[in-house]
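Predict structure. Chain length: 130.
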Amino acid sequence: MTEDKRETIYDIMGGARTVRMLVEAFYPRVQQHPLLAPLFPSDIHPVMEKQYLFLSQFFGGPSLYSDQYGHPMMQARHLPFPVTKERADAWLGCMSAAMNDIGMPQDLKDFLLERLQGPAYHFINTSDSD
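Prediction complete.
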């Protein structure tokens, strides 16, 4: 197998279709979550599209986010929002539930959530006491 043929996480999880399904299952949960909903605009569709582009790239798919918006600089993009550990946990909980909703196998779900924990906790920029 050549280096060009290496399978990515994106490929293993089912590519664009699965990432799209995950994003579509995730954001309704975010919009209903009392800690997360206030951080998002009422028109969630642009956020969903950016998340689709980002997750595609994050999991080893095409560089859709960078191609459209430049370097992700995700920590800087999250600075205007009060991200607490409690909110990071809630975000991961919504993502876990969305993975269940789309029927993701448990071993793949566990692996993806482990990968997402790093960024989720890296974006914490305020204490839980706000």
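Summary: The two ends are 52 Å apart (CA to CA).
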